[in-house]
Every structure is written in structure tokens, then in C-alpha cells.
Write a structure and sequence with these properties.
By secondary structure, the chain is mainly α. Helix content is 88%, strand content 0%. Helix 4 runs antiparallel to helix 5.
């Protein structure tokens, strides 16, 4: 007797439990592998976000430290009549705060997009402008050019410190919030 060949659907009907088991096993293995890859990427992303937040926090600390020292210097120049020793001490603190700020600025730039970097650079330039205006006034306070530097110092006290620095900081905060949320 010649055995008749079985049709494909008869084979499926006959061995459907084994076929379902094999397909299910393949699905479970595939799902486990995909979950492992996604978990790995999620952990890497969450660590990156965590590092970004830590660096932004350190950047803000260094910024506020520098801003405080610059304001002290400005107010000493504008309103104080103190010895050169006090100004040298303040300048020393500004130098240390500036180095700390520049370091954190460079590190935090690694985590920022171009728009955020532009805002940080503007903020840095404004801080430098305040420091420069106060220093130039102090240098030229007894010179004929005093009026020019006095006007710049007045602009610093009336416009840059109370208006422009907070505006730039607010814009930067809004940009950074977009990334975190």
C-alpha cells in the first residue's frame, strides 16, 4: 500500500498544540530580549538625565555665587569708599567664583542644545560686563574719563543687574524646564 501524503493543513490540525507552544516560546524569548534592550536604554537615559540635573544644579550654584560676588563688588565700587585691601579681597573672590562658573559652564554645555548654550553665553557676557564696568570705574575714578565710566556703572546698576540678568536667567530656566518635563 502506498501511503497517501498528508496535506499541510492536516499536519497543522494534528500538531497544533506543539506549534502553538513553539511560537509562544519564541514570542516569550523575543519579548524578554526586547525588554532587556529597552531597560538598558532607559537606565542609560535616566542616568544621563540625573547627571544633567546634577550639573545644572552645580552650574546654578556657581552662577549665583559669582553673581553675589559681582554685586558685592559693584556695590562697593558704587557706594563704598573702602581701602584697596577690601577691593583686592573681593577681586580674589570674584576670580575664584569666575573660574568655578567657567568650569561648570563648560561641563553643562555638554548637556544643552544650541539655544540653551546661546542663553548661557549671553548670561556669561553680561556678568563679565558688570565686572568690567565696575573695574573700569574704579581704575578711572580720578581721571578725566570718569564721566564715561560713571555712566556705564550707572547703567550697570539700573539696567543690567536688576533687569537683564534676571531676564536671561528666566529664559534659560524656561528652556531647561522644556528638557526636564
Amino acid at each position: 500500500m502506498i501511503e497517501e501524503s498528508k496535506k499541510w493543513y492536516e499536519i497543522i490540525f494534528e500538531h497544533w498544540t506543539q506549534i502553538v507552544f513553539i511560537l509562544g516560546s519564541i514570542g516569550v524569548v523575543f519579548t524578554a530580549i526586547m525588554n532587556w534592550f529597552y531597560k538598558k536604554k532607559e537606565i542609560r537615559f535616566s542616568r544621563l538625565q540625573e547627571n544633567k540635573i546634577i550639573e545644572i544644579k552645580d552650574f546654578y550654584k556657581s552662577y549665583f555665587n559669582l553673581e553675589t560676588e559681582i554685586k558685592k563688588y559693584y556695590f562697593q565700587v558704587e557706594f563704598g569708599a573702602h581701602s584697596e585691601e577690601i577691593f583686592n579681597e573681593i577681586r580674589s573672590k570674584i576670580s575664584i567664583a569666575t573660574l568655578d562658573f567657567e568650569f561648570h559652564l563648560r561641563v553643562v554645555r555638554l548637556f544643552m542644545n544650541d539655544n540653551q548654550i546661546e542663553l548661557v553665553e549671553k548670561l556669561s557676557k553680561k556678568i563679565e560686563e558688570v565686572r568690567k564696568n565696575a573695574s573700569l570705574f574704579l581704575i578711572y575714578k580720578n581721571q578725566p574719563e570718569r564721566k564715561t565710566y560713571s555712566e556705564k556703572l550707572t547703567e550697570t546698576g539700573e539696567k543690567i543687574i536688576p533687569v537683564e540678568l534676571p531676564e536671561l536667567l528666566k529664559k534659560l530656566e524656561d528652556e531647561l524646564k522644556k528638557d526636564i518635563i
